[in-house]
Protein: FAD-binding PCMH-type domain-containing protein
Amino acid sequence: MRFIGSSHLLLGYATLGVTAIDTNQQVPIQDSATKGCATACSDLAASYPKQLLIRNTTLYDDFIKTYWSKQQQDISPLCAFKPADANEVAVLVRLAKQTECPFAIRSGGHGMAASNVNDGISVSLENLNEITVSADKKTVNLGPGNIWSKVFETLEKDDIAVAGGRFTTVGVGGLITGGGISFFAPKMGWTCNTVVEYELVDPNGKILEVTKSSHPDLFWALCGAASNFGIVTRFTLETFPLPRGEIWGGMRISTEGEIPALLQASYNFGTKGVASDPEGAHILTLALHEGHKLGLAILSHANPESLGGEAPKVMKEFLDLPTIRDSTGVRTVNNLLTEMSYGELEPRRRKRSTATYRLDLELMHYTKDVCYEEFAKLSDIPNALTLCVFQIITKQQLEVSAKKGGNPLGLEPEDGPLLLLNTWFTWDDESFDARIEQAARIIVEKSVAFSKGAKRDVDYRYLNYAGEWQNVIASYGAKNLEKLAAVAEKYDAEGVIKTLRPAIFSLAGAPIS
Structure:
């Protein structure tokens, strides 16, 4: 029995533009599903007229333009819904289930293939933007519609911080449910392991308060397995002191001749440096810019007050290298995020992929060479940005997360330190899509093959960096995949999420060959 009247069905066909189905759609939708979505969108428009955006309107077009990638902007949902609280999210879930209408969940809009859906409902959580610090300042409630720049800006007023994201516009929900890496990972662990409670709308439209004690199986599954178990409408995260919201950090750019030394510094930091000072973290990016090979070291230290006005000793190898640009110094987290996010607001086509290996210097050099070989093949593409990003998943990060209860990611402390690769491409003309896709795959495939030959391979794929073609959840290991499937069967026996959510990063595997 329907819980919302369907008297608006004819209005749906008239105003929502239900015509021929897009043959390039992300999720196959049959005629019955399209009709069901017309019904769902019409009912939402009747109940929440100010929160429902319909196709072929200015507000709808403006909303679509806010997606991070042009590929996401090219997807056309039948309508977009902006719920104001968990109850309205629950209404959406029950309605989508009744009408069999596919829906996608958007936090900040960076989910490359999972935050929008053709001919379905795009659910934007932007109005779920609570930031409430507890009286003792030890936890904070965060709505999934927040972006990290707003979170850090708010928390610095209370001299605290969380292990949040490193780009201004990344959404809280997507980062956490994908695992989450932060400037503070060595001492705080994965971001998802700093969650003490989730408010979750389950696949049946029921609102659950999920903690280690109330729903231990679901609490474990939500840490890194994306939105395969429902829609999180609130996260309660651990906080830690961070006076004035300040860290030491910045970007140092070096030319080609310094790249071998940068790789050595990165390797040394991961194998011994971070053990001596868990407040330090770094990202190493290899770029080809206007024919020039560049190495970008993004350095951070989470306790500038302990440095006595000096640069952190743990970063000495990096700091001793010549640069053409150096912005390191004491600054707010938000200020560093802004520098790292330069150009991120531009509407461009984007592609990424990922792999993980046991930290190995020879492998780093080999992957560097493969990256530059593939970058060179793309040098004729106008305004293309081609990057390979190296990050260290430290043993300390894995130890801290294990002590906090672990997660489904399939990584143990004895696996560390690990090297995480992220290929990153941005460009403008869709005619180059296939070449970019091929380059991303080749870099991953060749480096993984090398790592297997050197017995340094690790199956794990970081969800927040993965390409649409990568089978992320399966990379967590057969045992964890089986446990996740059991959790899904328990809380989603009817397969609502499996059936109606975009199939990217699902328990069933990658939908794109």
User: Anything to note?
Assistant: The longest helix spans residues 433-453. Residues 246-474 form a domain with the Vanillyl-alcohol Oxidase; Chain A, domain 3 fold (CATH 3.40.462.20). The chain has a mean pLDDT of 91.
